[in-house]
Structures are given as structure tokens and as C-alpha cells.
Amino acid sequence: MITSSGSSGGKSPYKYLLLTIVLILIDQGIKLWMYFDVLPNHYGEIDLIPGFFKLHYVENPGMAFGWELAGEYGKLLLTVFRLFAMVGICWYLIYLARKKAHNGLLWSIAAVLGGAIGNVIDSTFYGVWLKNSPLDASTPWFHGKVIDMFYAYGLDGNYPDWIPFLGGQYNTTPIFNFADACIFCGVVSILIFQKSFFIHEERPTKSIVDNEEVLTEEQKMLGDENTSFNEDEAPPVNTTKEDIQTVVNHKTENDSEQLKEESK
Q: H-helix or E-strand containing 38?
């Protein structure tokens, strides 16, 4: 179950979509800056933290962190999948906003949507705009390469020997872009704060059920006492728990007196 707040009409999705648009503009701005300035004027590299982190221009034909689908139609299938995912995430964001979902969940999904659209733009249009589609592509449309640039090269090196299966092997840190970071941060925030974003209806505990059963028995006993009222007498209108307890005590006293009489 999704946590909710706000008016009965749901939340407006526009402020969350505005974040998506801002993230797309930042992503595309960084990529185009890398292509038109860093690549020709800085040999595609700018050291931000010497010895550890730099901007490094790379054209990625596949998915995030350099993964790709093999085959002649691998890139086309990947782009089509991204398009469907983009539409699905956008619809889901609007749906959750209408359902008054938790703000944190909506902001996280907006970040994921911004990253997804940012990479879709690369795959769909960069083959035409920047002419970076593979030479053997059937069409430059939907075959554009995604521009990556963030490279933590200080993490490159051999894995420690004690790590199973990877020990001793050389590790090359994946290069990613701003859109990948948006998707990653959005997904991680949902995983970390899922207990706040989603709530589940709890079943009543045994003690609550037992209390309800006891209360029902007391109400039955009260009903038996009320049958002794005259027809002209009006029964109690508002019965409280104290009234029920008084009747129970009164009945107990009557039963005790009756036992004493019988013993005599």
C-alpha cells in the first residue's frame, strides 16, 4: 500500500515532471559541452580530482556503464525498449501522483524518468544530430551512441585475492553519465526508504481480538439486564465501558447472594 497525503483529488504531477525536465536539460547540456568543447579543445579529458576522477569523453553504443546488446538489431531493440520504459515510467509517475503517493517516492521516480529520457534522446537523435551512429547501422535514427564522461579512474586496479571469482583480476571502473547517475540515485533511494514510501495494512493482534470478544460477552450480559426494565422505562442510550463493568459487578454480587441463600 502506498502512503498518501493531501486532498482527495490527488497531487499535481507537474512539479515532479519539472524536476524531470531540469535533469534532462542538465544531462544534455553536459553531453553537448563534452562533444563541442571538451573533445576538440581538451583532447576529450579534464582532470577534476587528479589521480582519482576526471571527465573522459566516451561514446557508448549500449546501455549504462558500457553494457550493450549484441547482434545486428541489438541497438535498435535497446532503443525501442528505452522508449517503452520512458512512457511507462512517465505514466506510473502521474498515476502515483493522482494516488497521493509519498513525496519522496515521486521525486525518486522523477529522477529515474529524467535519466531514462536523457539516454533515450542520445539513442534516438544523436546518430542524426552528431552523426555518431555505427558505420554499419541501417539508419542513423535510433542508433545514436550515448555520450559518457564521468570516470573514477582512481578505482582501477586488481581486485584483492580474497574476493571470490574476481580475486587478482584487473578492474576497469565503468564510465557513466549524468543520466545514469539520476537513474542510479532514484532506484537506490527507493530501495533505502521503501519502508517510508510504502506501508502495509496490519492485521489485528490477538490481544485486540480477545478484548473484542470480552466486550461482546459483556454487552450480551448488559442486554440480559436491560430485559428486566419496564416497558415504560427507556433503556440507556449511550452505554460506556464503565456501565458494562458496573452491570457485570452487579450481576456477580447477585449471583453471590443467591449462592449464600441456597447454602442456608
A: none
